[in-house]
Amino acid sequence: MAEVEPRKKILLVPENLLKKRKAYQSLKATQAKQVLLQRKEQKKGEKLKFKQLEWFLHESWWQLRDRVQLRQLEVKPHGLEVPDKHSLAFVVHIQMINRVSLLVQRTIARLGLSKIFSHVFMKVTP
């Protein structure tokens, strides 16, 4: 005799969720099409960019410099570590440097080193 297969239970989903799902999928599909069209338009207007030979030379110098710095850190591994004990540091603002990062500017401002030759004692913690 034929074996009776157990019926799989179909989960019922409310209609409003199905409608929302369908609308969301159609919205995402149209957005994806628009993105593809925009990319195609951008590629049409792009010109080929050629790197000059000097830039390849500069990049190789930078890579060599990075490798040397990494090798030096391997030789002196504890060069960047903070001491285990609390210690005191004397920080002096010696020279104005233009075009520094925003993080550096904020740090200088928080330490109260806005003027040249202003100074502050700092507690260095591990």
From TrEMBL:
Residues 13-84 form the Large ribosomal subunit protein uL30 N-terminal eukaryotes domain. Pfam families: Ribosomal_L30_N. InterPro entries: Ribosomal_uL30, Ribosomal_uL30_N_euk. GO terms for cellular component: cytosolic large ribosomal subunit. It comes from the Eukaryota. GO terms for biological process: maturation of LSU-rRNA from tricistronic rRNA transcript (SSU-rRNA, 5.8S rRNA, LSU-rRNA). One of its GO terms (molecular function) is structural constituent of ribosome. This is 60S ribosomal protein L7-like 1. The gene is LOC102992177.
